[in-house]
Amino acid sequence: MTTYEYEPDTLNEDGSLVRGRLARSVTVHDALWTEEDLGWAMGERANAAALCPGGCGHPLEESTDPKLKGEWDAPLPTVCFACQTLEKRKAEYQGEDIDPGHLFHVRRKPPD
Questions:
Q1: Which residues partner with 102 through β-bridges?
Q2: Longest CA–CA separation in the chain, Å
Q3: What is the DSSP letter of 67?
Q4: Are 33 and 41 in contact (CB under 8 A)?
Q5: Which of 10, 46, 73, 106 is within CB 3.0–4.6 Å of 86 for a Cys-Cys bond?
Q6: Which residues, 6+ apart, have CB-to-CB distance to 27 below 8 Å?
């Protein structure tokens, strides 16, 4: 929000009104983070810190509980065909004579 402060209005010699010049303007910005934003961010940070850093994605409180030993299953991996295609393309560019800076991506082929 911006507020403007003007010099006082005056009258000219002929009696016409002369508006005061802008003397100062002050702009006040809203806070980048509200209290609610901060609360959500801190909660997200706490949730992330509570997860196993090994990569399983489960809460440490559960994944390290001796009572739950043997209660975990690791199913066979799923193949992401988009990732598979991307990794094959990257492999084509591995070598000493390839300049760095190639940006790889994958997209769906348009329907025939």
A1: none
A2: 97
A3: G
A4: yes
A5: 106
A6: 1, 2
